[in-house]
Amino acid sequence: QVFLAESGGGLVQAGGSLRLSCASSGRTFSTDGLGWFRQAPGKEREFVAFIGWSGYSTDYADSVKGRFTISRDNAKNTVYLEMNSLKAEDTAVYYCVARIATTYAYRGQGTQVTVSS
Q1: What long-range pairs does 82-87 form, CB within 8 A, spacing at least 24?
Q2: Average pLDDT for 1-21
């Protein structure tokens, strides 16, 4: 079992920044890495970013490339999502996920990000 706890969400004006954190615990050694998904009201959940345990393997959704940066601190078993130049369309519940092979097998409770225009 892998446990994920997100923090750092909130309300921010368009153009502003937020940093999300995801603290992981449990059998994290069984995973390939951690990432973020988001789900806006009335929309399907969508991939945002992923980072492997080495920190060298990263992937981003086209909609956030150049604005969001994913990073990790292995000593703290924590992954971060730095979000800059936020837009109203970034408003969503952001979920931390853990990947095993090609499956995002674990998910946190989520943290709300609201961007006001």
Answers
A1: 82/17, 82/19, 83/17, 83/18, 83/19, 83/20, 83/113, 84/17, 85/15, 85/17, 86/12, 86/14, 86/15, 86/16, 86/17, 86/18, 86/113, 86/115, 87/14, 87/115, 87/117
A2: 97
